[in-house]
Design a protein that fits this description.
About 20% of the residues lie in helices and about 15% in strands. The chain is built from eleven helices and 13 strands. The strands form six sheets. A three-stranded antiparallel sheet has the order 1-10-11, with no helix packed on it. A two-stranded antiparallel sheet has the order 2-4. It has a two-stranded antiparallel sheet with strand order 3-7. The protein is globular. The two termini are about 35 Å apart.
């Protein structure tokens, strides 16, 4: 069973951005480092997104925190409203504590399963950070495998497997068979930079072992996913849809090789199609729906938004299990987790004045990385969360889908996202993953062991940027990587 990969980057030196703004007549030019001229877009009162000459160390605007410890992803935004502060700590409690099987004396926390991947949100998002792949030969425990069968379901969604649904759950409550163990192995691919520096990439292969409900006889589409960092979600939700649309170029009308697209997905709350912005393929339109989907799919907890249990009717053993209520999480607690997820703060950039980091920023622009990892966006009016409104932020994403080439393809379409397309993941916080989570595995399935490997996996629309990175000497590559680690 083959897998794919994710992580978008870009192409041509700096693409003509369609967002509102004015091009500066000049430069991101360093007389110290003799970099080629790169035109930049100013983010000002009249500009909502673009490539500024300088990046403020306040990556989350005025909601930025200054924390570089192992708790850097778990802090509330500064000046959080009193009501939201209360919700933050209630949500934090339910995010981190284990759910239990029903019935239980702790009624607010019962209803686990009957099938599940983890017992708590933090089971994957440890310290609100990024999960990692399992060791080769060991079952997945903090990441998951999406599955479906070929075809297009309602509203363009993937079609669930008739027995195993849309996600493999490797755990179950007492008396219920787990669905299967997802096992990963790797094939090594070695190469050499033009300057003679060697590198090795890992190509993952996945297998399903110990199936609990019969053999997988139907053709199966799969997509492995690690849990991403939780920071800044409320800010990203607050970026106006109109701005994302202005940055999109689905037909590549400017012929720069970059054709970012918005995914249209089913919005449960609105009961209509909306633009997605969360998930590895932008398959969720809001933080609320992302939280509800994860509670149901990963833990087996129903909410008023996602009322269906995560098992199929053909899994008869699951049908006889007691429920934790209908829904299993109250609206008050559900909304507390949503509010918590929206108000996790973004840590600042570190050592922004370091000349090597400044050089890395210039190289980031010149290689075209900023074409999709858009450095600056402006949030609009955030309904219910004025603390997040009208902020200039530096997430390094355009929240759009990009064709990343065959090497990263999962061949599993999701709504309007093709099997080769992935959402540009934000880069803020990427330099703190090692500190917070104790690993450096990157891309959607964690196959990249470091930033260099992640860049080398880029293809498709990002092929040109990848090739330019390959052509750099070791000093320049190190500067670019040091810049990324400062985010």
């Amino acid at each position: 069973m083959n897998s794919s990969l994710i992580h978008p980057s870009k192409r041509s030196p700096v693409r003509r951005l369609t967002a509102v703004g004015t091009l500066l007549a000049g430069l991101v030019i360093s007389t110290i480092f003799h970099q080629p001229i790169v035109r930049a877009k100013e983010v000002s009162e009249s500009s909502d997104s673009g490539i500024p000459e300088r990046i403020s160390e306040k990556l989350g605007g005025e909601t930025t925190i200054y924390d570089r410890t192992r708790h850097a992803f778990s802090r509330p935004i500064p000046d959080i409203l009193p009501a939201h502060r209360t919700e933050f700590f209630v949500g934090n409690s339910f995010f981190n504590h284990n759910w239990v099987t029903a019935p239980a004396s702790t009624e607010a926390r019962d209803g686990l399963g009957p099938l599940y991947n983890v017992r708590s949100c933090s089971g994957c998002h440890f310290k609100d950070g990024r999960s990692r792949p399992p060791e080769p030969g060991s079952p997945m425990t903090t990441m998951l495998l999406r599955i479906s069968i070929p075809g297009i379901g309602p509203h363009g969604a993937p079609i669930p497997h008739p027995v195993y649904g849309d996600q493999i759950q490797g755990r179950a409550v007492l008396g219920v068979p787990p669905e299967a163990d997802v096992i990963v192995s790797y094939q090594s691919q070695s190469g050499t930079f033009p300057d003679g520096t060697p590198y090795t990439l890992r190509q993952p292969e996945y297998s399903l072992e110990n199936p609990g409900y019969g053999a997988f006889t139907e053709p199966l589409l799969t997509s492995p996913r690690v849990a991403p960092i939780m920071i800044g979600l409320g800010l990203l939700e607050s970026v106006p849809e109109s701005l994302l649309a202005k940055n999109a170029d689905p037909e590549d009308s400017d012929e720069d090789g970059i054709s970012g697209r918005m995914n249209r997905v089913w919005d449960i709350r609105k009961q209509q199609m909306s633009f997605g912005r969360f998930g590895w393929k932008s398959e969720q339109p809001t933080v609320e729906q992302q939280v509800a989907g994860a509670l149901a799919g990963d833990i087996g907890i129903t909410s008023s938004l996602v009322t269906r249990e995560n098992h199929m009717m053909s899994q008869e053993t699951c049908l006889d299990q007691p429920s934790g209520g209908s829904p299993e999480i109250s609206d008050r607690l559900f909304q507390a987790i949503v509010s918590y997820s929206k108000t996790l703060a973004v840590p600042s950039q570190r050592n922004a004045g370091d000349p090597e980091i400044q050089r890395g920023w210039s190289l980031f622009l010149n290689t075209g990385c900023a074409d999709c990892h858009l450095p600056a966006l402006r949030t609009g009016t955030s309904r219910g969360f004025p603390e997040l409104s009208n902020q200039i932020i530096h997430p390094f994403t355009d929240l759009l889908l990009h064709d990343m080439g065959e090497g990263l393809a999962d061949h599993r379409p999701t709504f309007e996202a093709s099997g080769k397309e992935w959402r540009t993941p934000p880069l803020w916080g990427i330099g703190l993953i090692q500190t917070v989570n104790g690993h450096s595995f990157l891309l959607h399935d964690g196959r990249a062991e470091n930033l260099i490997q992640a860049i080398l996996w880029h293809g498709g629309e990002a092929q040109s940027s990848r090739d330019q990175f390959m052509a750099q000497n070791r000093t320049d590559r190190n500067a670019l990587i040091k810049f990324l680690k400062s985010l």
